[in-house]
Design goal:
With 394 residues, this protein is of the alpha/beta class. It has 14 helices and 14 strands. It has 2 domains: 7-44 and 288-393, Alpha-Beta Complex (Aspartate Aminotransferase, domain 1), CATH 3.90.1150.10; 47-283, Type I PLP-dependent aspartate aminotransferase-like (Major domain) (Aspartate Aminotransferase, domain 2), CATH 3.40.640. α3 packs across α11 and α5 (100-111) crosses α6.
């Protein structure tokens, strides 16, 4: 058989999806598994969004649309940015894609190429380095402040070279849940402006911010970077629409035009019915966001209470998203369930095998001494899973 392309050897399957699949397979075998591995809200998609999809089907809205998405939805996205962020985009600066990951892929393919370097702060979402590699670029992983797990201007300035083309910022972040303050973003903006590089701002968790914290992105605090920033967003996390696969990109007209052209040859348009559902999400009542955010906030409080009871775990409180990211290296060298813990992968396997709790090792995010747990599931499941972990490790 002829060899496969080199690009398929550069990346691995998404580890978070693989672990979720493994947990679901164990459940299908009748085993009682608490799945804390996947970042998927457990709430049903709000009823008014589902009704819009049904109405679209009944109206026969099941044909091709413009590859960049229907005009009404792109207008709604532009309206969202104006309303929520004070950013002015026209519909031709917006591209609707098959999920946020697809929008991110389009951005990487349009902004970088072979020989370029992409700066990615650690910890990072698993897909960023893979997509840089698929675009022919070199991912450069940046260590962050150990206390905040956020990028500092000093670290950024030292990392920039003549090959640097792009910086990826994700706030609130996956896996840490940590968030950049407006002041921190302004400090980074000074370095970014001087370096004349692109920024991808992954804002997918914008609406999941807790306490007194307020969301901001680099374009909001530094208008001079508006034309050098591409924002990635979507409806998956905000409206519990992960399976609908609608994400979007907003940026300069040249980037949006290039992304639409690329998408026309890759996937054509996103699903027509899902676009109508996303339109109802963005333009309809927003009280569902408040309800879900309040539920996640209660879960965060409970999770932090229980995580602090687990011996050997050290966990900063997340500002947003729905993950906790405890440091577990204090357990190294100890034996549990007949296995010695040497890294987070060992611990994740031990927990899945012995107490049937699925987690994600920090190795997937560039932090081998950490473990990610998602609290995008019910309070009952969270309490059950964390008590099982606490009692086992005690």
């Amino acid at each position: 058989m002829p060899a496969l392309s080199e690009r398929t050897t550069l990346i691995q399957p998404s580890p978070t999806l693989a672990l979720d699949t493994e947990a679901k397979a164990l459940k299908a075998r009748g085993l009682d598994v608490v799945n804390l591995s996947i970042g998927e809200p457990d709430f049903p998609t709000p009823a008014h969004i589902c009704r819009a999809a049904v109405e679209a089907i009944r109206a026969g809205f099941t044909r091709y649309t413009a590859s960049e998405g229907i005009l009404e939805l792109r207008e709604a996205v532009a309206g969202k940015f104006k309303r929520d962020n004070g950013l002015s985009y026209s519909p031709d600066q917006v591209v609707i894609s098959c999920g946020g990951k697809h929008a991110l892929y389009n951005a990487f393919q349009c902004l970088v190429q072979k020989g370029d370097e992409v700066l990615i702060p650690v910890p990072y979402w698993v897909t960023y380095p893979a997509q840089a590699l698929l675009a022919g670029a070199t991912p450069v992983l940046l260590e962050t402040d150990p206390k905040t797990q956020l990028l500092t201007p000093e670290i950024l300035e030292k990392a920039i070279t003549k090959k640097t083309r792009l910086l990826v910022l994700n706030s609130p972040g996956n896996p840490s849940g940590k968030m950049y303050s407006p002041e921190a973003l302004k400090d980074l903006a000074v370095i970014i402006k001087k370096a004349d590089i692109w920024v991808i701002s992954d804002d997918i968790y914008e609406n999941l911010v807790y306490g007194d914290r307020k969301f901001a992105n680099i374009s909001m605090v530094c208008p001079e970077l508006f034309d050098r920033t591409v924002i990635i967003h979507g409806v998956s996390k905000t409206y519990s629409m992960t399976g609908w696969r609608i994400g979007y990109l907003a940026g300069p007209k040249g980037v949006a035009k290039a992304a639409a052209k690329l998408q026309s040859q890759m996937t054509s348009n996103p699903a027509s019915v899902a676009q109508k559902a996303a339109l109802a999400a963005l333009d309809g009542p927003q009280d569902c966001i408040v309800e879900m955010r309040e539920a996640f906030s209660r879960r965060r409080t409970k999770v932090m209470e229980l995580v602090r009871q687990i011996p050997g775990w050290e966990c900063p409180e997340p500002d947003g998203a729905f993950y906790v990211f405890p440091r577990i290296s204090a357990l190294y060298g100890k034996e549990f369930g007949g296995a010695e813990i040497q890294n987070s992968e060992d611990l994740a396997q031990v927990l899945l095998k012995n107490v049937r709790v699925a987690t994600v090792p920090g190795t997937c995010f560039g932090c081998p001494d950490y473990l990610r747990l998602s609290y995008a599931t019910s309070l009952d499941e969270l309490e059950k899973g964390l008590i099982l972990i606490r009692d086992f490790l005690s």
